[in-house]
Amino acid sequence: MDMKALNTMDTLITENGQARVRHYLLDVGSTFGIGANGPRDWTEGYEYLFDGDKMTKRLVSLGLYFQPWQTIPYEEYSAIGRFEGDQFNPEAWRSRVPAGAVLRARDDDNFWAARRVMAFSDELIRAIVKTGQYSDPVAEEHMAEVLIKRRNKIGQVYLTRLTPLVNFSLDASGVLTFENAAAKAGVAKAASSYVASWSTFDNRTAAASPLGETKSSSDRIAAPASLPTAPGSFILAEVRSNEGSDAPLQNPVRVYFRRLDQGWKLVGVERMPEYTPIPDRE
Questions:
Q1: Is the separation of the CB atoms in 103 and 4 below 8 Å?
Q2: What's the confidence (pLDDT) of residue 279?
Q3: Predicted structure pTM score
Q4: What is the CATH number of the domain that holds 208?
Q5: Which of 38, 58, 154, 264 has the fewest CB atoms within 10 Å, measured from its CB?
Q6: Closest listed residue to residue 74, CA positions, set 65, 84, 64
Q7: Minimal CA–CA distance to 196: which of 153, 252, 158?
Q8: Are 273 and 162 in contact (CB under 8 A)?
Q9: pLDDT tens, 94-113?
Q10: SS3 label, residue 225
Q11: Containing domain of residue 101, as a range?
């Protein structure tokens, strides 16, 4: 997609009494393999519109400096243009012009975005492509297959960068439940065991007082019996894999709960709690 800063808009909305940010993409006419006036340029998705470094290398090498886009065997369809999934690399993908949202994205940003992409099942993707009313059924099938391949690669790369635990809940009896997003998407195996480090949390000073550790061989972990019961109390659970030396899984997800009259309410999730410099992406 020809993505620029002007093609995005974020708005604050309220749904069911809850405020959230909604992201919009605007003007998506030049999408997939088609540009404004025909098939996309060969370099789109691989290089910026002006990439001085690569242009210089091609010039001094008299064109012998090859890039991946120069050897891709595209299956071109007049209704789709140049669009493929076998050579697609999410980390190497480039918008037509540098986009701040992509350049400054952290691993937790990409994890969030990958979950949105992985929410589209094969069946849903095929149904969406069907609404395009392609006259050529072969082109329709090609479009669906490419989208599925690209979705899978995005999930494989970005759902495995951090501990991929999601959908946390703590019931009134003190049992923490969660899901492994990477395992659910089929891009990684679930850990055989997990550990949670529990603390009381002072929401005014951010001070944490340890309560102990609990472990489980499933996605259900019992909390210590010493959890506070007074309404308004906060607790922090740091949840991670309890096996191997897989660095991403050893970084805990920090989950915050607040005690209400009827039980515990999830109030915060941090995947990268410490300050992380914005990546330098060319």
A1: no
A2: 55
A3: 0.83
A4: 2.60.40
A5: 38
A6: 84
A7: 252
A8: no
A9: 888 888 878 888 999 999 99
A10: coil
A11: 5-158
